[in-house]
Specification:
alpha+beta, 4-stranded antiparallel β-sheet, globular, 9 helices, D-amino Acid Aminotransferase, Chain A, domain 1, Dna Ligase, domain 1
C-alpha cells in the first residue's frame, strides 16, 4: 500500500509495474464508485485522469484471494460479542461485471467461535488503541485472505453500507437506535442482540441512471409499488411517502435494500429475492447472484485455517 499526494505522483507506479495490477482508491470523502481495479498500464493511466489534480490517492497491489470483512463493536473499554463477517459484492452487474458501485449486496453472519477465528484475532489487536481513543461503535477490517496470509485492505470506523441492513436481518427484534444510545451513554451492553446460527442478506435495489450518472430531478415521483405496510425487511433510502404512495426522491437512484435471513445461505438468499420480486417500479435493477460463491469462499477460508468449523459454517458448506 502506498499513499500519493496527487495523481501525478501516483504515476511513479508505472515505472515499477508489478502484475497482476493495482487498486486505486481516493483518500477522503469521495464516492466509493471512484475506486478502480486495474490490470494494465493503459487503464491505470486513464484511471488517474479521472481524479482532480490535487486528490490524495491510495494505491494497493492486487492480491488474489478471498475478500472478507470482519466487524466488531467496541464500548469504549472492551469488545462486545458477537463479532461478524461480511462477504460483499461490489460490482453493479451479475457475474461481477460492470462498474464498481461500492456495494450491490452483502452476506453477513455472526462468529460463533471467536477464539478460533484468525480474522477476529487480527481485529482484536486494535483493542488497546480503541480504548485509548475512547472509541465506541462498530469497526470493520476488510481483508484479502490467501494461502500465504491475510492482507489488510482498509479499516472502516462506522457502520457499513449495506452490511448494516444484512446484520439487522439477524438481530433480535430490538431498535438498533437503542444499541447506539446505550453505547453513547456508557451503559456498556454485554452483547449485541444478534442471533447466532443465522445468515443475513441485503440486496441493493436501484433505478437508472444509477450508477452511471446523477439522477435527473425531473424523474422525481416515480411510483414504487408492492411495499408491505410494516416495511419489514425493506430498508428505504431514496424514497418519500406522498398520500400513502411511496415514490422515488431522485437523489441518487438507490431506492432500498431488500433483506432476508435463514439458517442456511440458500434459505436467506431465497427469502431476500422473493421479496425483491414483489417490488414493482419502472427500471428496477439489482443483481441476481448475491451470495453466489459464498459457500466456496467459506470452505476455502476454513481449509486455510482462518475460520473455525462451527455448526453454522458446517450447514453453509456441508
Amino acid at each position: 500500500t502506498e499513499s500519493f499526494a496527487n495523481p501525478t505522483a501516483a504515476k511513479s507506479i508505472l515505472d515499477g509495474w508489478i502484475n497482476p495490477g493495482y487498486a486505486i482508491k481516493p483518500s477522503g470523502n469521495l464516492d466509493t464508485g471512484k475506486t478502480f481495479i486495474v490490470r494494465d498500464k493503459d487503464t491505470y493511466s486513464w484511471a488517474l485522469e479521472q481524479f482532480s489534480g490535487d486528490q490524495n490517492l491510495i494505491v494497493q497491489r492486487i492480491v488474489e484471494g478471498v475478500e472478507i470483512s470482519t466487524e466488531g463493536w467496541f464500548n469504549g473499554e472492551d469488545w462486545l460479542n458477537p463479532f461478524n463477517h461480511t462477504i460483499e459484492y461490489k460490482r453493479f452487474l451479475t457475474g461481477d461485471l460492470g462498474p464498481n458501485t461500492g456495494c450491490s449486496g452483502n452476506l453477513v453472519w455472526a462468529v460463533d467461535k471467536p477464539q478460533k477465528d484468525q480474522l477476529v484475532k487480527n481485529l482484536k489487536k486494535l483493542g488497546p488503541f480503541l480504548k485509548a481513543a475512547g472509541y465506541k461503535g462498530p469497526i470493520d477490517l476488510n481483508t484479502i485472505a490467501t494461502s500465504k496470509g491475510i492482507f489488510a485492505l482498509e479499516l472502516t470506523a462506522r457502520i457499513g453500507y449495506d452490511a448494516i441492513e444484512a446484520l439487522y436481518e439477524i438481530m433480535e427484534p430490538q431498535d438498533l437506535g437503542e444499541v447506539f444510545d446505550s453505547l453513547g451513554r456508557g451503559d456498556k451492553p454485554v452483547d449485541l442482540p444478534v442471533k447466532k446460527g443465522m445468515f443475513g442478506i441485503a440486496i441493493r435495489l436501484t433505478v437508472p441512471p444509477y450508477p452511471h450518472r446523477k439522477a435527473d430531478k425531473r424523474d422525481k415521483g416515480l411510483p414504487i409499488i408492492g411495499l408491505p405496510e410494516d416495511l419489514d425487511h425493506f430498508y428505504l433510502t431514496d424514497v418519500f411517502l406522498n398520500n400513502n404512495l411511496y415514490q422515488w426522491s431522485a437523489s441518487d437512484g438507490v431506492l432500498m435494500k431488500v433483506g432476508g435471513n435463514g439458517r442456511t445461505i440458500k434459505e436467506a438468499t431465497a427469502a431476500a429475492y422473493e421479496r425483491a420480486k414483489s417490488i414493482r417500479v419502472e427500471g428496477a435493477q439489482y443483481r441476481v447472484d448475491i451470495a453466489s460463491g459464498a459457500e466456496r469462499n467459506i470452505s476455502q477460508l476454513k481449509k486455510w485455517g482462518y475460520l473455525a468449523s462451527g455448526s453454522l459454517l458446517r450447514r453453509a458448506v456441508g
